[in-house]
Amino acid sequence: MPASEREPADSPSAAEPIYQGLLTAIMEHRLPAGTKLVEERLCEATGAGRPRIRQVLARLAHEQLVTLVPNKGAFVAQPSVKEARDVFQTRRIIEPELAAMLARACTPAHAKRLHGHIAAEHAARERGDRAATIRLSGEFHVLIAEMVGNHVLERLTRESVSRTCLIITLYDRPGLPACPEHEHDTLIEAIAAGDAARAHDLMREHLEHIEHSLDLHATPTSALDLESIFKRA
Fold first, then answer.
1. Is 161 buried (19+), middle (13-18) or exposed (0-12) by CB count in 10 A?
2. Is 76 helix (H, G, I), strand (E, B) or coil?
3. Alpha-carbon gap, residue 97 to 115, rounded angstroms
4. Helical ranges in the chain per DSSP H
5. Within its chain, how far is the Cα of 156 from the centroid?
6. I need a labelling partner for 5 at 20 to 30 A (CA). Which of 20, 102, 151, 211 fits?
7. pLDDT tens readout for residues 84-137
8. Contact 155/64 with Cβ under 8 angstroms?
9. What DSSP state is assigned to residue 60?
10. Stated pTM of the model
């Protein structure tokens, strides 16, 4: 495409890929909790101007994934132990019922989408792609909410899943998977069979297992590489 026809980096629609890039990096644990998001470096990495970067950071702050500190800048949020417990409590209230709702209305098309997602999750795990495995595991929960069709519950699920990814970066127990792989398969079986009660119970147990896998003490120390997040083809 000629340069004259390319969309300017600061056009309104240009904010979405920047937002998605940062969100994906958070969900894949490539952007550790507590990391300072320097506007100048984000501008260099994305080609966008400061107004667009600030718009994206404000959106992430609204979703409680970024903390804006006056005179200091923007930081990837660091949920406290209490906040972590509150997030899981919220998920235990919402997601078991979502699983039950989907089981009651599950169609062959729904089951096919769920199985397709799990296949991608298994493939990522088999090739050793930990970042993709983490992201897909979280997106599985969002997919259930999406298929139920309640947009308010879907938004709450998306936000709580993203916050859970931050929580895991802070409190993950080394060597112990935060999301046991077989539990998604078992949950899909219950949903596809239309067993709402079992789907409800399995989802609640699954969320409890994720919470219990955390040690609530570890803090991340990995370095930040913004350029790799927004690497251009």
1. buried
2. strand
3. 20
4. 15-27, 39-46, 50-62, 81-105, 108-126, 130-148, 151-171, 181-192, 196-212, 226-229
5. 12
6. 20
7. 999 999 999 999 999 999 999 999 999 999 999 999 999 999 999 888 888 899
8. no
9. H
10. 0.80
